[in-house]
Amino acid sequence: MKKRKPLDHCALLFPAAFALLCLAQLSFAGFGSADKGTSAAQFLKLGAGARAAGMGEAYSAVCAGADAVYWNPGALSGLNGISGTFTHAELFGALNYEYLGYAQAFKEAGTIGLGIQYLSAGSIPETDSGGFETGSDMNPVQLAAALAYSRKIGGFGIGAAAKYIKARLAETATALTADAGILSPGFINNKLRLAVVVQNAGGRLKYGQQSDPLPLNLKMGGAFSVSDNFILGLDLNSPRDNRLYAAAGAEYLLRYSAVSFAARFGYNSRTMGEIDGLTGVSAGLGLMCHDLALDYAFAPFGSLGSAHRISFSFKFGG
User: Fold this and answer.
1) What is the pLDDT of residues 251-294, one digit of tens each?
2) What's the predicted TM-score (pTM) here?
3) Burial of 2 (0-12, 13-18, 19+ CB in 10 A)
């Protein structure tokens, strides 16, 4: 019996995945910009890595290291050796956000990854039902820990991640959810890769008597290598609690022997028309030396202020 080529599988897989996304968007048709933020645990949308932020979060088919635990577990299958990343982000007000990721490949056994998201809001005065301060302070903290596994099947990277979520406001709530992702083999002389990702599928976060769903998001993405130094990314997102939105980004590398410099630009339409002033655009810089990388990203959010992210990453073993 003739063996199918990876492209034959792709011809069946990606139209089916696209159809699922279209059906999902129709099922979310009752949601719009007015429903933004109605899901619980919004910090799950804050991403991983300054490289992704600089590219407008058009990253589901670009990621290739430990940050893939967040963006696309299926992309972990392309890792050789080990990879790690740490990101610190200064957001609005007293909000600080960290992401820690680690991944290790075990040859034919596949790749295992771990990702941790942590958001702290500093100290906030506690108030009663009448709006008066009680004299006590709250220290809101939100955390998510993901354990991922990925391997290649028929040339495709297939992966999934189980996530544990804990959020503490006046009370503490926990939830379990899952991600899954697919990364295609390279097409057009290995220049094009495609991705399908499901984030935060299932689970509810409950405070007292109120239970809210988690921010389910379905996406399709692509990455195209224009040259060895220039890559383009595009993601189409279908979130449960907002309208369909797109993310596009570009990265250009300047290589000098063992050192490389990166310039990145991106646009994300998620906040388009909802925040006064300049928003949606992003830019970033990167410095790579041997197996180490230092990245920075900047994104203005109009009247809310600007977000700054810095990441340190490493990748050893190929």
Assistant:
1) 999 998 889 999 999 999 987 766 666 788 999 999 999 899 99
2) 0.86
3) exposed
φ/ψ of residue 155, rounded to 5: 90, -10
Q: Which of 28, 26, 104 is nearest to 65 (CA)?
A: 104
- H helix count then E strand count, the chain: 3, 18
| β-pair partners for 160 | 149, 180
Is there a contact between 146 and 70 (Cβ–Cβ < 8 Å)? Answer: yes
Number of Cβ atoms within 10 Å of the Cβ of 112: 17
At residue 286, what is the residue type? G
- DSSP conformational letter for 270: G
Give the DSSP per-residue string, 31-81.
Answer: --GGGTT-SS-GGGGS-S-HHHHHTTT--TTT--STTHHHH-GGGGGG--S
Phi-psi region of 122 (alpha: psi -120 to 50; beta: other; left: phi over 0): left
pLDDT digits (tens, 9 = 90+) for 155-173: 899 999 999 999 887 778 8
Burial (CB count <10 Å: 0-12, 13-18, 19+), residue 256: exposed
Q: Which two tokens stand for residue 234?
A: 């595009």
